[in-house]
């Protein structure tokens, strides 16, 4: 089945970048995944929905990035008693954990060998599926934790190190099971899901006008990306056109978020290699940026800045001046820090060759976003599938081929400089019109998609509207889903004390993937 | 042995116990300045000790008496080491009984107990830290011995007071072999005291820890004693360094009146201030080594110390 053929058959979906929907049966669900894999389409996300109240069955969706288009494949599962569908992890390994999550939340199973739960940690009974319509999500259940069977490794001198979910530092919870010989890592298995908050269920109780606030809180460090993706989906569903000024301000906020996170990560990467000087310098740069955020956007972290129809806060001429001055001061500092990092023998010795993710592995496992760009994969929604205002700006695509910690550091440096260039462009002559327009209530039962390249990678919101301004189903996808499994490969052959540095170079979201 | 010698001996030990945390505080302060941070007060380590002594001990259920004894043994060995090292005066009754090789034995004893205590609880991190610390230790000790041999060759004695007296006899004569030994000693000092580039005392990353991983399970007064012992160990190492390479100002036997002792204490303080700043500078400039680079690092220290010996023998000093 050729990709072009499907585009003809597939009607358009409301979205900020061209998106089509393909309705398939059970066999075609499997075949489409296979043909997308063959044509090197990137796998984006997978989610399910309980539609028994509407047409007596469940639906499972998968989204793929094909050139110029996002393809949402939809499969209706008629068997509501024991719903199942063919797993696609054989083509897209990244789908496995998403399938396990769907099984936990909706009770839709696959034919994959790995049937362990993923998001359910005993917080609700095994026979209960919280995302089904007959569960309202308000009940409390006693926690009944069962042992999680990690894949055992045997051999002479092989032993396990269990780390987390509570760590020595103040970081998000996640469990890492290392199998080691001496200091060398033979195998790493992650167990996540400790911060599962039931966001998808919470969306069902939210109104369309308020959903952006919940979306912004899926992963706090990507608040702009998530809330923009949500608003883009809602605006596409209602054919709302945002004022030009609001679009520029959203993009500015997105780049500020990218800058803040990259600056923070670069400092933390220095610190994790024992170079505390880097941490203090980058912390200062990040702090200056966050303080400018208060003046320009009304908050340090841009939680509720992007709202349906525009943005919440207008940029004053003073704030514009302040930001431009900030960029002028930041650029030489960042360049200077970059030469310090590049020329520091001890630091480079830690960064180079550590946690190498080969391009072939990254391709096979479906790496996405910043991590993919550090392994030589050219992918960035702002470049490949540009939406307003990026369609007029031609952002530079940053790619490094090393695949190691050093490459991920370089990608961050390059992206900081590129973001500074974009921010200056946004501020050079911002259009003078309103910052917000009203968004009407969307018709019930329609699916819309919002896709935004956040600082980690593509953030996607699939929004299905409900009656009277409500939300029927909203799926928020964080790129960490794809990239978490990659760490299990990047660590192979490395030594245990290098893991924190490698993990930090990915800096994935726990909250975003746990949902 | 006169009463005065005993007073001198105990005075020196008390001084070491009292100002060891201050030295650690000073290094922390210099590090903060060098990293453009606002520094914690000099008294921060004392406040930390006070806080820890006021807390209740949380003890793992599997802790054996060894685990509870170890902090006291650690502290005891470090105090004893402070008594042997001529930091202010050379006429120390304790130093006459134990020479520098016994001193290394003392440090090794402390290491063995701490490693056993770390493994006693049975957590992955304790054993991991103990394993790594043993690796560092067995590489660092030969290098330290070689450094000491340099000094022994010059003075013809293995007792530190004799080494100090021999070098104060020719204060302006710098032996080239000592330059090699001094660099080697500095490298060993950083490694033995769990500092960058070998270990990072400030890290929160449990997988990268060496010393911190071993003491993760300690709390309250136990932790206070462990911390205090670490401060004392660093202080002791600094004083060994001063005795070997910068012996100026240390009151020699027979010439240790109140005035000379006063001068010696002031000289010690000045040396600590300079050494602390230098340590902070080294730590701020370097990143932590990958752990498997540690053998190379300590082999370099060993090699430098051997080079010092060779220089000494070849130049026939």
How are the elements arranged and paired?
The complex is a heterodimer of chains A (515) and B (317).
Chain A: H1 3-9, E1 12-13, E2 19-24, H2 26-38, E3 42-51, H3 52-55, E4 57-66, E5 69-77, H4 95-106, E6 158-163, E7 175-181, E8 184-191, H5 199-204, H6 211-216, H7 223-237, H8 244-272, H9 276-297, E9 306-307, E10 310-311, H10 317-343, H11 345-351, H12 359-365, H13 369-374, H14 381-384, H15 405-428, E11 447-453, E12 458-465, E13 471-477, H16 480-490, H17 499-506, H18 510-514
Parallel strand pairs in A: 2-5
Antiparallel strand pairs in A: 1-2, 3-4, 4-5, 6-7, 7-8, 9-10, 11-12, 12-13
Helix pairs in contact in A: 7-8, 8-9, 8-15, 8-17, 9-10, 10-15
Chain B: H1 3-34, H2 44-53, H3 65-84, H4 93-97, H5 100-120, H6 124-155, H7 160-169, H8 176-192, H9 211-214, H10 220-245, H11 258-285, H12 294-315
Helix pairs in contact in B: 1-3, 1-10, 1-11, 2-10, 3-5, 3-10, 5-6, 6-7, 6-8, 6-12, 8-10, 8-12
Description:
Chain A is of the alpha+beta class and 515 residues long. Chain A has 3 domains: 3-106, NADH:ubiquinone oxidoreductase Nqo5 subunit (Beta Polymerase, domain 2); 158-191, no CATH class; 199-514, Orthogonal Bundle (Cytochrome-c3 Hydrogenase, chain B), CATH 1.10.645. Chain A has helices spanning 3-9, 26-38, 52-55, 95-106, 199-204, 211-216, 223-237, 244-272, 276-297, 317-343, 345-351, 359-365, 369-374, 381-384, 405-428, 480-490, 499-506, 510-514, and strands at residues 12-13, 19-24, 42-51, 57-66, 69-77, 158-163, 175-181, 184-191, 306-307, 310-311, 447-453, 458-465, 471-477. In chain A, α8 packs antiparallel against α9 and α8 (244-272) packs antiparallel against α15. The longest helix of chain A has 29 residues, at 244-272. The radius of gyration of chain A is 22 Å and the shape is globular. Chain B has 317 residues and is an all-alpha fold. Chain B has one domain. In chain B, 72% of the residues lie in helices and 0% in strands. Chain B is built from 12 helices and no strands. Chain B has helices spanning 3-34, 44-53, 65-84, 93-97, 100-120, 124-155, 160-169, 176-192, 211-214, 220-245, 258-285, 294-315. In chain B, α6 (124-155) packs across α7 (160-169) and α6 runs antiparallel to α8 (176-192). The longest helix of chain B has 32 residues, at 3-34. Classes of the chains: A alpha+beta (515), B mainly alpha (317). The interface between A and B is medium-sized, with 33 and 29 residues.
């Amino acid at each position: 089945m050729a990709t072009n053929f499907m585009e003809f058959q597939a009607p358009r979906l409301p979205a900020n970048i061209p998106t089509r929907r393909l309705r398939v049966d059970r066999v075609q669900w499997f075949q489409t995944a296979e043909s997308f894999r063959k044509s090197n389409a990137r796998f984006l996300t997978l989610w399910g929905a309980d539609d028994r109240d509407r047409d007596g069955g469940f639906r499972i969706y998968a989204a793929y990035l094909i050139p110029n288009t996002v393809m949402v494949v939809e499969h209706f599962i008629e068997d509501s008693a024991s719903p199942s569908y063919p797993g696609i992890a054989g083509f897209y390994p990244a789908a496995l954990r998403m399938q396990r999550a769907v099984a936990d939340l909706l009770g839709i199973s696959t034919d994959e060998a790995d049937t362990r739960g993923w998001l359910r940690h005993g917080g609700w009974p095994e026979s209960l599926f919280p995302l089904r319509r007959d569960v309202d999500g308000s009940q409390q259940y006693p926690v009944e934790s069962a042992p999680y069977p990690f894949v055992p490794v045997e051999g002479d001198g092989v032993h396990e190190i269990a780390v987390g979910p509570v760590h020595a530092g103040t970081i998000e919870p996640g469990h890492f099971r290392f199998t080691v010989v001496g200091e060398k890592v033979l195998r790493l298995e992650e167990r996540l899901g400790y911060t599962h908050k039931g966001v998808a269920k919470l969306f069902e109780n939210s109104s369309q006008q308020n959903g952006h606030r919940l979306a912004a809180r899926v992963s706090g460090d990507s608040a702009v990306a998530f809330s923009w993706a949500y608003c883009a989906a809602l605006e596409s569903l209602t054919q709302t056109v945002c004022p030009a000024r609001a679009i520029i301000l959203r993009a500015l906020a997105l780049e500020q978020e990218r800058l803040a996170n990259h600056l923070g990560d670069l400092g933390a990467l220095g610190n994790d290699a024992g170079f505390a000087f880097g941490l203090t310098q980058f912390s200062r740069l990040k702090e200056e940026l966050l303080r400018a955020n208060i003046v320009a956007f009304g908050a340090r972290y841009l939680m509720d800045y992007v709202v349906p129809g525009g943005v919440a806060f207008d940029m004053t001429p003073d704030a514009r001046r302040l930001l431009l001055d900030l960029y002028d001061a930041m650029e030489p500092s960042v360049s200077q820090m970059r030469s310090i990092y590049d020329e520091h023998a001890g630091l480079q010795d830690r960064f180079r060759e550590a946690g190498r993710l080969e391009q072939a592995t990254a391709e096979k496992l479906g790496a996405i976003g910043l991590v993919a760009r550090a392994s030589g994969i050219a992918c960035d929604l702002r470049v490949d599938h540009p939406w307003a205002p990026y369609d007029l700006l031609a952002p530079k695509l940053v790619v490094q081929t090393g695949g190691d910690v050093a490459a991920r550091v370089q990608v961050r440096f390059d992206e900081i400089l590129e973001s500074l260039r974009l921010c200056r462009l946004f501020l050079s002559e911002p259009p003078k019109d309103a910052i917000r327009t009203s968004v009407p209530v969307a018709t019930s039962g329609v699916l819309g998609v919002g896709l935004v390249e956040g600082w980690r990678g593509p953030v996607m919101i699939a929004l299905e509207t409900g009656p009277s301004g409500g939300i029927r189903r909203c799926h928020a996808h964080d790129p960490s889903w794809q990239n978490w499994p990659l760490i299990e490969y990047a660590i192979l052959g490395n030594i245990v004390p290098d893991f924190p540095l490698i993990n930090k170079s990915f800096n994935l979201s726990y909250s975003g993937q746990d949902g | 042995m006169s009463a005065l010698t005993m007073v001198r001996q105990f005075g020196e030990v008390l001084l070491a116990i009292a100002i060891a945390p201050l030295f650690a505080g000073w290094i922390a302060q210099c590090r903060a300045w060098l990293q453009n941070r606002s520094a914690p007060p000099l008294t921060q380590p004392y406040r930390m000790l006070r806080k820890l002594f006021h807390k209740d001990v949380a003890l793992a259920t599997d802790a054996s008496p060894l685990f509870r004894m170890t902090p006291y043994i650690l502290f005891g060995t470090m105090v004893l080491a402070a008594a042997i090292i001529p930091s202010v005066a050379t006429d120390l009754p304790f130093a006459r009984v134990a020479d520098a090789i016994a001193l290394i034995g003392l440090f090794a004893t402390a290491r063995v107990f701490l490693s056993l205590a770390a493994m006693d609880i049975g957590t992955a991190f304790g054993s991991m830290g103990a394993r790594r610390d043993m690796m560092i230790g067995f590489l660092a000790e030969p290098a330290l011995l070689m450094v000491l041999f340099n000094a022994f060759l010059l003075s013809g004695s293995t007792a530190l007071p004799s080494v100090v007296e021999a070098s104060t006899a020719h204060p302006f004569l710098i032996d080239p072999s000592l330059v090699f030994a001094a660099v080697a000693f500095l490298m060993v000092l950083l490694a033995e005291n769990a500092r960058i580039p070998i270990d990072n005392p400030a890290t929160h990353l449990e997988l990268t820890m060496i010393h911190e991983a071993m003491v993760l399970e300690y709390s309250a007064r136990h932790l206070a004693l462990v911390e205090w012992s670490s401060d004392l160990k660093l202080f002791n190492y600094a004083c060994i360094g001063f005795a070997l390479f910068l012996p100026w100002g240390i009151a020699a036997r027979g010439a240790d009146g109140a005035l000379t002792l006063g001068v010696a204490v002031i000289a010690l303080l000045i040396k600590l201030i300079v050494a602390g700043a230098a340590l902070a500078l080294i730590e701020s400039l370097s990143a932590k080594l990958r752990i498997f680079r540690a053998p190379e690092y300590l082999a370099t220290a060993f090699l430098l110390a051997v080079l010092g010996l060779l220089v000494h023998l070849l130049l026939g000093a």
